[in-house]
User: Fold these one by one.
Assistant:
Number 1:
Amino acid sequence: MVYSRDNCPLCDEFVAGLSRLLAPTDERIDVRDVDADPLTRRRFGLKIPVLTVDGSLVCHGRLDAAAVARLLAR
């Protein structure tokens, strides 16, 4: 899951990069607005964009392509 917010160029870049990494797979990106939920906003509001998998933090701020590749290799 990617936590993002509207009008965030860094978030747009993050999602676009993740889309390119996932293109050869059947994986989908679930993008959520970090500001839609107060708890999520408190947890991730200053770290966006944030990528989590099964509730665990994978990376935030900048896309970590190596971390995503490791997850895809599982």
Number 2:
Amino acid sequence: MTKFFTYQTLAGTGSAQSLGATILEDATGLSMERVRIYVETAPIRFTLDGTTPVAATTGEKAEIGDVLELFGGEINDFQFINETGTAASLKMQGARGKRRDE
């Protein structure tokens, strides 16, 4: 079972944003290799390749209740924006473990 070391909540805005420093590394400075994101309150648009998502047009859409799993470079390249005018809330957990199939 994966052990999660970091936790963060981010509020979506009308501007694209990346993950915060709190989720990217633990208290000892070790980087996370896996991040699980729970989408709450409103849908988002997101990208995993470093490009900037645009509300309602650019990026993949994640709905309320969706869970995103990021691994490796996706963690630093992830950006998101509110899909609509309603602010999204993202709850996140970070782990140092890797997927079993890696």
Number 3:
Amino acid sequence: MTACFIVRAQVVDASVKEAFDTWYQDEHLPDALQAFNAQRAWRGWSEVEPDVHYAFYEFDDVAGARAIQGSAALKGLVAEFDRLWDGKVTRRRDIVESIQAIEA
């Protein structure tokens, strides 16, 4: 089954939220999709915590998602993220493997 590499970012400096959103939309999400060689990517803002942003990168399997950790692609994207948002946006990463899917 598929797996997702998930990035949870929290904007701690509210003055950068709009710029962060635009950067993620126009640069980071497309760059990460290509660099990770993911099937697809999507993102959104939490309805419960308005300062929390999630990005999802989907892979064929958990091995593909795990391959991101420690990769040159991730290191480059992290360096750019830190250069622009260090101290203004924090983030955590996770990998979730789909173990069940049903449809109505």
